[in-house]
Amino acid sequence: MPNAFVTKKTVLEPIGVIPREALATASLRSAIESGAFATQLPSENELCQQLGVSRSTVRAAVQSLIEQGLVTKQRGSRTLVNMRVSQLKLPLNAGIGFWDLISQAGHQPSTKNEVVLERGASADIAENLECEPGTPVKVISRLFCADGEPAIYLEDMFLSSLLKKAPKLDSLPTSIYNFAEANLVSPIGYTIAELIPIASNAFTVEKLSLPAGTPLLHLIERHFQANDHPVVASYVWVVDEYVRFSVYGRKRREGVT
């Protein structure tokens, strides 16, 4: 009877630095996406040996993969690989920057028209950042291009008081997650995004050089610290000719409400 999974001696690299759980998750995810595990993960013991980590670390990593939709735990010891999910190019829960999204969609990314300014928070921004209207906020606006064509325009906004060092236009990280870690007093723990289909108006016609009425995807993202306090509010307009997102869903577990 053939093995239910395919494994090689060099599939997974041993891990020797902290955080071990995150590195174990990344290593497993990479192996799954490369097709190293065709139908299911190896046993827990084998994963411990290949990764060089404890059972608790392997279990935490597998649980993370379950939450990402990459694997499904069945009764008993089998952990099945969801190959269709692993092949999704742009899952919404990936938590990666727009530069990488454009690259993963098969285009050459670039940025231009990057601007950093300060202004008082409008009522809408104040609500998303949980501050008083008029509170000073920094705004970083930039245009992401795909193969030289406008693809994504976004404005990242955060309280000026959260800035630990002034950002430099010539060295802005392309990901808001990397920017927050390098420039704000608190990194981003998680993100909640609202997706709204819209037609381009005068604002987006100017920013994205599109004809009026062109279909766009508008994202309103709220980035939070691990303690649930908002760090950054991002307003994003996406041309779906270059970037399209995938949504993964699964059956709710029994007893979970």
Summarize the structure.
The protein is α+β, with helices and mostly antiparallel strands and 257 residues long. It contains eight helices and eight strands. Helices cover 26% and strands 27% of the residues.
Label this structure with key terms.
8 helices, Chorismate lyase, 6-stranded antiparallel sheet, 257 residues, alpha+beta, 27% strand, two-stranded antiparallel sheet, 26% helix
What features would you describe in this structure?
- This protein is of the alpha+beta class and 257 residues long.
- The protein folds into two domains: 20-86, Orthogonal Bundle (Arc Repressor Mutant, subunit A), CATH 1.10.10.10; 92-238, 3-Layer(aba) Sandwich (Chorismate lyase), CATH 3.40.1410.
- 26% of the residues lie in helices and 27% in strands.
- The chain is built from eight helices and eight strands.
- The protein has helices at residues 20-33, 44-51, 55-67, 83-86, 98-104, 123-129, 176-183, 202-208, and strands spanning 71-73, 79-81, 109-120, 136-146, 149-159, 190-199, 215-224, 230-238.
- The strands form two sheets. A six-stranded antiparallel sheet has the order 3-4-5-8-7-6. A two-stranded antiparallel sheet has the order 1-2.
- Strand 4 and strand 5 form a beta hairpin.
- Helix 1 (20-33) packs across helix 3 (55-67) and helix 2 (44-51) crosses helix 3.
- It starts with 19 loop residues before the first helix and ends in a 19-residue tail after the last strand.
- The relative contact order is 0.11.
- Mean pLDDT is 83; it is low at 1-8.
